Write the structure tokens for this entry.
Amino acid sequence: MKVQISFMERAIELAKKGMFTVTPNPMVGCVITQGKNILSEGYHVKAGSDHAEIVALKNLKKKINNNMVMYINLEPCCHQGKTGPCAKAIIDSGIKNVVVSILDPNPIVKGKGVKALRSNGVNVNVGLCKAEAKYINKGFISRVTKKIPNVLMKQAISIDYKITNPRKKWLSNKESRKDVQFIRAKSCAILVGSQTVIKDNPKLTVRLNKKELGIFGKKRNPIRVVLDSNLELDINKYDFFNGMEKKIVFNSISTNFETKKNIDFIKVKKNKTGLNLNFILNILAEKYEINNLMIEPGEKLSTALIANNLLDDLVLYLCPKIIGKYGLPASSAINNFYSDSIKVESIKKFSNDVRINYEFLRK
Amino acid sequence: MKVQISFMERAIELAKKGMFTVTPNPMVGCVITQGKNILSEGYHVKAGSDHAEIVALKNLKKKINNNMVMYINLEPCCHQGKTGPCAKAIIDSGIKNVVVSILDPNPIVKGKGVKALRSNGVNVNVGLCKAEAKYINKGFISRVTKKIPNVLMKQAISIDYKITNPRKKWLSNKESRKDVQFIRAKSCAILVGSQTVIKDNPKLTVRLNKKELGIFGKKRNPIRVVLDSNLELDINKYDFFNGMEKKIVFNSISTNFETKKNIDFIKVKKNKTGLNLNFILNILAEKYEINNLMIEPGEKLSTALIANNLLDDLVLYLCPKIIGKYGLPASSAINNFYSDSIKVESIKKFSNDVRINYEFLRK
């Protein structure tokens, strides 16, 4: 059992190599083994390129025999997508044993890949390392099952719960800020409020190079999303609107598409806390296929996110400063909200900043 | 040099064994070595019992020779205190080599012990591991040099910066609360505001047993201190006033001594933020010989401590809860205060609570 776990863990490790490139697809890794040896490996790099199983089959140097076992962290597909169905490729290859960590979360296809394999004489085991397999693809799973992305909020806060430092541009240190770039790179989209665009004029691009990210193909910048209820932002003034990456402006006034700058203006209804965030998340999942949404909010937006119980992940950088009354608070008092279903996923020190990753266990 | 450092580190380790018992004295440890071997060890257990050097000399089984070296983390005393002067005992013993980490911080005696040794033919080196030696006795050093204790503030806070949970008695978990007991045990005194006494009726005693503290003699409870400006607290009503440990009630009305319950009422002047905290700290250092003061404040007191720049240490327990608007904040907006001279001393996870130890680098 131990060696089987280590094979699946290797498949998951391989899957994570697609972390920065694979969106909107899930991360998938695959190993083909015999006895105690890994004979071949593969992972899915990006939408349109070979799936992990196909890569592993192509990389296999030995003739396939009945003792070989294929480990995959996600059920093989059985439908014709941008690439051929993997279930068929596995059957055709002659592989007779497959271990799958989790089934495809998509309710329409869930279990069909395994069924196709089994009815063609392939032994399939499901469930090995399933917690970890779910965890790495929780954004994808959220999108296809709940029709909303996984929502990660990032804030850098002082000891006295402020998010701005009137004396300096940054609250957090250089190492923390570099770490944030990895979160950006992993995210399919980044969302901010219009006030952040006005005050900070952020680029919201990934500042790491391909070597730092450990990727070979093209570097991808996340889709940029802003909440601009009254369409106050001048698209010729702010860096947010630069470049040809997709930009989305959620607002309460009109829907239209500015193709020259690749900006989608999407009208949504308002509620008590501003633009309806549930609608926005749904649109981001269904129309834009966003698995992982990163939010870098100011006071108003963070308060709305908390009050509406929309967080899946909270990444706090605690900065060793006391700012006093001229800094803006991280959130304002939240009425009628209480949660203790929050767990600490990890803690890490970046010099004198401390990062805490919280996971919200939403019901 | 490496072996000499390890000898001094051992002396410092021994010194720390006095952590829970030694107040108001400094923690001192001593080893006597020859070549690469430690021949004898000792540490100071509590005021009135033998100093570390005397313990190590008494424990030494071999006849003293010129190759032996004594390592002590603090300069030996040269004055007659509750016990005889250690410098004289070292001279009389025949030890010819002494390594001292730091000089006695007390300006009146500083360097006199070393001078006495040297003028009696003992070789003395000063300065090995001095940063660590200063750190462990920073409370004692603060008291004798600045005439105020080292001030440690402890708070348990939620993600949204609240210190109370209207739904439960505690914000922090059991493991964090046990950890707090060790901070209490290390402190010479604990200070709270009168509102904390009224709302929580705390005992402020150490709940750990001798085995948990690793001590052999009597367990010591810290002196209990309350700020009760208008003398509102009924001394027959609250657990704070129970037991025969010293209790101090700082107030703005009168000074008197209630001997039956061992309560000292001390009158101090008020300033903008309430009772003058600088005066109070000075009295605690000079009259009560408090090296390490622990403060478990509510909103008002924590705000005053920060605003008056009185913190040396801040121990935050970050609890994974969002409390909302019915919890009290950890501090209120602080006017005209700003600090970024704060460093993270350590971080530790207690299940889902995270403890961060901050050190304030006051000028």
About this structure: The domain at 147-360 of chain A is CATH 3.40.430.10 (Dihydrofolate Reductase, subunit A).
